[in-house]
Amino acid sequence: MLASGSGTNLQALLDAHAVPPGLGVEFSLVLSDVPSARALARAEAASVPTAVVRWSDHPDRASFTTAVCDRVEASGAEAMVLAGFMRILGGEAIERYPNRILNIHPALLPAFPGVRAVEQALEHGVKVTGVTVHMVDEQVDHGPIVSQEPVPVFPDDDAEALHARLQAVEHRLYPAAVAAFAAGRLEVRGRTVIWR
Ligand code: GRF
Question: Is the pTM of this model over 0.90?
């Protein structure tokens, strides 16, 4: 699991895994680029090993990516689950983990990719936004879509209120997607992910 921030999605995965039959996964590592990320404290509380790979310790994206992949591989992990990981991984990660990196995004992709997805939706005045779980490919917030769920936008919403509504959905959608992925139930055909 890779996270840069508060780690509420990590917590949702840990909590879902704690309820039998669990998610069918092993949490082998929580890795962050931010030493103070709350996600790391959540991992420690759940006795999951942690690692920090700092962006500033690396001259470029390629060497940062190699360091992240090497650390993930050393943990024994067979896949990566990204939630709020604020660094873009280079092509080596997709080569080493093809269709084995999941990400969650707080918008209905391909609408509002990149940072500030919640603010972008408010600025655009959409009535509906949502959550997307997708496989990571070479482009940002672009890979094959695993699952999506719409979330209404209300007239008085600010970014905080809307993000809270989105996160409640994230915390349900991501565990379901991760469990399906771990069970080998997600077949990727081109851009389409078929749930088996
Ligand atoms: C989530 O809203 C996710 O969609 C986005 O970053 C946020 C991470 O939240 N990519 P958290 O750290 O899991 O609380």
Answer: yes
